[in-house]
Amino acid sequence: MTELHTPRLTLHAVDTAEAERIVARRAAAGDVWADDFPFEGDVLGVTAFLRAASAHGNPQPFGHYRITRNADGQAIGGIGFKGQPRNGCVEIGYGLAPSARGHGYAAEALTALLTVAADHGLFRVVAETDKDNLASQRTLERAGFRQSGADDHRYLYEALLDNSEQRVSPDPS
Hints:
- The structure is a single chain.
- The chain is 29% helix and 28% strand.
- The protein is an alpha+beta fold.
- The chain has a single domain, classed as 3-Layer(aba) Sandwich (Aminopeptidase).
- The chain has an 8-stranded mixed sheet, sandwiched between helices.
- A hairpin with a 3-residue loop joins β1 (3-5) and β2 (9-13).
- The chain is globular, with a radius of gyration of 15 Å.
- This is Protein N-acetyltransferase, RimJ/RimL family.
- Keywords: Transferase.
- One of its GO terms (cellular component) is cytoplasm.
- Residues 14-163 form the N-acetyltransferase domain.
């Protein structure tokens, strides 16, 4: 699996060479990036992917994906699994370039990765967000996550997956 498709997005599983370009912020011929891609969150997520790939080999499908907007073919962010699943659960992280925020792209990408997790027999996906990041909290909720805990600075969210015919689906509102 190298690509996932949603109505408005393509999620492309990055390989080591592409990940290194993203971390270096140097597009190669054929890369089509939004002007503000990659942003700091992309670099952090891809750096973690590179560490995991170096230590354990290609983690796909539980790796990192570049989010590309189908309308213009531009890379606008990243989403990925923070490690391999354990006990039927995996953590996820995501981020969009500032110019792509506010259009529902993150919830759409999250829903696609929930399907990957369910298709691989997982029953739970978790994510964290800062308490003051209301946009991320709304995004997680739209994608089917519910708050499940908190510490001093962050909320923990989870999506419980139904591995039968029914999948988690985003809130249409």
